[in-house]
Every structure is written in structure tokens, then in C-alpha cells.
Amino acid sequence: MSAVPRDVLADLPGVDRFDTLSVQVGVIAVVALLGRLVLLGGRISHYDEGRVGWWTEHFLDTGQFEYRFIIHGPLVQHVNRVVFDVLGANDFTLRLFVALVGAALPLAALLFREHLRHDEVLGVAAFLAVNPVLVYYSRFFRSSLLVATFAFVAFGLFVRAIDHRSVRPAHLGVAFVALAFAAKENAVVYLLCWIGATALVVDHSLFRTGGDVAGVDWALERLPDGDTVEYVRDNVWRYVGHLLLGAVVFFGIALYFYAPRSPSPGAVGFWQGLTNPAQFPEMVGRTIDDVVNGYGYWFGGSADHGNRFDSVIDQYLSYLGQSLETLSQYALPLMVLSVAGFLAERYTRAHPRMLVLFAGYWGYVSVLGYPLGTDIYGAWILVNALVPLSIPAGVGLAMVVRWTRDALHADALRFGISVFVLFLVVGQLALALGGGVYTNTTSDDNTLVQFAQPADDFRPAMAALDDTDTADESADVLVVGGDYIRTRTDDAGNTVLNPRRAGIEPRCTSIGNTLPLQWYIEMHDAQGTCAVSAQNATTIVAQQQPTVVIAPPTMQAELADELDGYTATTYRLRTSGNEAVFFVRVAN
Prior knowledge:
mainly alpha; two-stranded antiparallel ribbon; 24 helices; 59% helix; 5% strand; globular
């Protein structure tokens, strides 16, 4: 373990250097918390946020839940069901859980303090706290940040378990692995990355044994001797017990989150299975079937590059190019310093720390691999790479800071270069945070923003629903024609509504083109319906007087003549294009 220099506080009587480090990392976490909570509800919800938010509200209102793989892991629905019940449903509470987890992420740096210097731990925590990509997706109701955080913490706990030869951190690590699987299906990829990184660091150890001993001989010398084998044999049931306990922890947590829920006593649900042993096998079987179907979808080659790409290779190159562009704009300091830290660790130290190499391998393969595995591009895939790369980046940052400090009175040129590098790091972070996270959160020019993010904030129009009397069955929101509704042609050749049999309401709406509208309709406890044409819409308006009417711009002129007493505003439901006209009834 590398020596950790004592700072001023650590020299005070009764103050341990690790306690001092914990306080400093805690301060960084507080900064991270503030950065994630400020204006948390300011951005209008993205398509994905609205979809999962709607199903969470549905879970709260009905008590019905099942794993829907298309919206990824079930963890956020279980957590936000409680959040909505206590604090109400809105864009702030929608993102609160993810923001709190993202704010706590810098604390995970403390798990590696036995392997990193004091300043390196602070560097890791700082990158986890203020990197713009991590901050943006800590303020986004999506599970990418959650799975990355839980996997990173699990890895740190496994490292602690090895360091201290203790099973307690290992069992806790298994629990966090289970939470990662409950958050999102790509937790499987993390396990694969760990296996690959382990193979590379083992190869490194065999190649550079630290002496004149060949790698094979070095490995043979470390095989268990007779006393060790006898000890393991004498304690075999102890090891088996810990393995069984780990399995119970993992599958118990996974079952809790993935199992269906229903308020009906006779239904197949989690609580029915626990209270009625006869139903337990059926509940477990239903859960396994759901999980197998879901994971089969995501890992069974279901991703389709569609008409946009001629081949998977074209898709990969496109997504990789977009990833590199985002990294250059919003994670350049982290990436550059991670490379510097990794190379310094690998080639300038007589005994490289396997932790730094492991994290580097894990992160770099994620940069290259995730564009291949994603079905639709979003910069959220970079979270999976940037979290582990914070370790070599923290090493690189601490190295530059030490160079600057050492050159202060010795080498003016090196001092100037080091200060300039630090200035670039801080300046780039400040500009990227300001422009990408807080002031440009829905623009198509921002590569952090995914296409399904509405460019315009239509919440003022939907706020009129708060004054709507929802006691009767009249519609509060009317969605008209175009690509916004589901239609079919009947036997007589007429275009009629074709609502879904179940799912997101209003069922007559086309969720691909209208989400997150349904989330806001649900949030305001409003009712929605659809009209095929402007003529149908006129009839419904005359009968029900909906508060908000939403139609494509091509129908605006025709509807405007019939919607006396309504004001019209056009909003973009995506980062570009997909405009919709919102007619809002003027209150008397």
C-alpha cells in the first residue's frame, strides 16, 4: 500500500488521517448534492422519464406492478412509488432518488483509500462529483447512473473484503450487485467487464513478476500449500455457508424488486407468495419467466439498427463517433487525466497498483463496447465508462497537482505548465457544467441531450389542468389526429381510433410521438381522449369543453375557428421537429 502523506489536520492529536479524508470527501459529496438538487425540476421530462414516471404513478394508484423490460429495471418504480406517495408526483420528485444516489457516489472513493494516496482519493471523488456527464444524468430519471453507482460500490466493497480478509464487505457487495441488477439489465455487462479486467491484471502480474522469476514459476509459488488446503477442507462448510448466504442475499433482493404485485388476494404476487407458501413457487416461477423474457430481449440480438444504418458496423461507428464527441465536450479532463494516470501507473512504477489498471481496463473497454450494445443512442451510455475511469483520472489529477506544488519554488517552466493544465481542467468543467447541465438542457446542440427530449417547455399549458374539475368523466385533454393518435381503417374504409388494450393512458394516443404528455396528464390527475379529425374534435369540444386540445400544426387553422375562447401555442415535443399546437381554454 502506498504511503499517504499526512496533512495539517492529520497532525492534530486524536485525528486519524482516514477520518480527515472522510471529512474532505464528505464536503465534496455535499458539493455534489447541491449541484444535483439546484433546478432539479427545471427541465421538462424526457420521453423515457415520462414513460417510467407514468408506470410508477400507475403502480401507486392501483397497486399493480410487473417487470416491463422495455422500461428497464424495476428498482426506480419501487422507490418512486414511495417518494410520490410522500412528496407528490412532479418533475423534482421524479428525479430526486437518482440525484441523491449521484450525490452519494463520490463517497465510494473512500472504499479505495487503502490503495490510493490521500490526494488521489480526493481526485476520484472530485471527478465523480462534478463531471458534467455524471451530473447531467444524476438529474435524469433513468437507471444508467444507478447501475453504475451500485456496481462501483460493489466493486469497492469486494476490494475491501480482499484487503481485510473479511466476508462482511463481500456480502454487502453482493447486495449492491443485486441492486445493480434491479436497476438495469446491463449489470450483466459489468460482470463481464470485471472478468475481462481480472484476466488482464493477472496477465500483467504474470508478465511482470517483479524479479527474475518466470510468470509460470511465480504463479506456482503462490499455489495453496498443504496447510492451506487442509485449513480449507476443515472449514469447507463455513465457506459453503457464506456462498449460500450470498446467494440468498442476491436472489432475495432480486426477487423483491422483480416479483409482480397485485392488491387482489388471489393474484400471483410477491406478498401473496410470502404469506401463502402454496403460492410461493408460482410467484417465483412467474418472476423467473418475466426476467428470462426481459433479459432475452435485451441480450438476444433484438436491437435493430433500422433504416438509418446499412449495417451494424455503420451503427457502431455512428454511435462511437457521437460518444467520442460527447467525451471531448463534457469529459475531456477526465479522459485525458485517466490516460495520463493509467500510463504513469503502468509504465513508471516498479510495482503498478492493480486497482488503477483494473479500473482503466474496465472503463476503456466500456467506451469502446457500449456503442455496439445499445439499441438507440443516448449519451447516458458514457456513465458506464466514466465512473470506473474516475480512478485513473484521480491518479492523474493528483499527479499534476503534485507536479505543480513541487515546481513552485524549483522549476518555473514546469510550474507554469502545470498551472495552465489545472486552469484548463477547471475552466472546461465550469463551461461544460454551465452550458451542458444547467442552461442548455434541451437543445439539439447539446450532445448530452437525447433526441426524445422535448425542446420546448409545454408545462405552462398543462398547468391549466390544475383548475379542471375531474369529478366527472369528461375529458380534460383532447389529442387530435396526425401521428399523435392510434388509428385503423374499418371495414367501411373509415379511419377510426385503435386504442391499446392496456398500458399507458390515454390508450388512444401514440406514445412514440407524444410521450411525455401522458406523464403530465397523469401528474395533474386529468382525463384524456382522442379525435381522429378536426370535425370529430369540434364535436368533442362542444360536448366536453376540454381544458387542453393538442393537435398537429396542419390542423391549427381549421381548429382555431372552432375553438373560441382558447389560446394557441406551438411547442416542440422533441429536440427538433415534431411540433404540436396546444390550445388552452381561457379561464372565465
